[in-house]
């Protein structure tokens, strides 16, 4: 996939979109176009982070890589084409291959072949950093297994942006990814996440945020929560409070835009047996043994299996 003409590979065509003849790379009014010339890249796969909202959050290195790569690949080719146009990066006859979770087996061979022939391939997900709850894992693994180099081109990430503004401890955190859509599976998943002694970051559909917080109220009503919406965009919003307070503040129809939910770490220090029994007594009045034990374990910091045994003993007694 290498261009034989060194000047062409370096992007020495200073006319940008005019060379393409299609206007694809014409910078939008008011935008500063990226430099057309860029150093030649070493062979390999370049995982390029792209903005999660504001287009100018892209890094200078990312622009250089997108400009100099021999082959471009993307989760959505239309999204990448738009990004290239915004920043004035010409295609110069280069292809943009589609590669996502549903076509990876068909798309990967062309990318692997390009790298094997000495080419540099830049891969972008729709937004943010590839592989962070985005496609690209199997591609990076296959390239590495074939002996190719895999390079990170870091930049925007919804995960890190949310941690930055959430106001929760960041010395230890768990990235839990997307919450399950089904209520039962989501409840069990939340119980496991809440039991981890760390701040937890999770992605959720804006329409299901209220349902998730309602379920969280049954597990740990006083859990500190931050709901981050539309990060880096015009209507960016961060809501902070307890799980129950936020569940009441969010409308029944849910929210709009991209959402990241941050759960603060569970309360430190394990409660004594008397406090655990008091908490269980209150929960067992309205909940099953299993659910009451999970909720009290998350609330008190005691191991769930120990709290479950105490709950069984109280019920039998």
From TrEMBL:
GO cellular component terms, A-Z: cytoplasm
Domain Tetrapyrrole methylase: 45-243
InterPro entries reported for this sequence: 4pyrrol_Mease (IPR000878), 4pyrrol_Methylase_sf (IPR035996), 4pyrrole_Mease_sub1 (IPR014777), 4pyrrole_Mease_sub2 (IPR014776), rRNA_ssu_MeTfrase_I (IPR008189), RsmI_HTH (IPR053910)
Pfam families assigned: RsmI_C, TP_methylase
Matches recorded under SUPFAM superfamilies: Tetrapyrrole methylase (SSF53790)
Principal cellular location given in the protein's record: cytoplasm
Record-level Gene Ontology MF annotations: rRNA (cytosine-2'-O-)-methyltransferase activity
CDD domains: RsmI
Keywords (A to Z) from UniProt: Cytoplasm, Methyltransferase, rRNA processing, S-adenosyl-L-methionine, Transferase
Compositional bias per record (Basic and acidic residues), positions renumbered to this chain: 1-13
EC numbers: 2.1.1.198
Catalytic activity: cytidine(1402) in 16S rRNA + S-adenosyl-L-methionine = 2'-O-methylcytidine(1402) in 16S rRNA + S-adenosyl-L-homocysteine + H(+)
Stretches the record annotates as Disordered: 1-28
Localization terms from the record: Cytoplasm
Family matches, as Gene3D superfamilies: Cobalt-precorrin-4 Transmethylase, Domain 1 (3.40.1010.10), Methyltransferase, Cobalt-precorrin-4 Transmethylase, Domain 2 (3.30.950.10)
Residue ranges of every copy of the RsmI HTH domain listed in the record: 270-315
Family: Belongs to the methyltransferase superfamily. RsmI family.
Its biological purpose: Catalyzes the 2'-O-methylation of the ribose of cytidine 1402 (C1402) in 16S rRNA.
NCBIfam families: 16S rRNA (cytidine(1402)-2'-O)-methyltransferase (TIGR00096)
Protein name per Swiss-Prot or TrEMBL: Ribosomal RNA small subunit methyltransferase I
Organism: Paracoccus contaminans
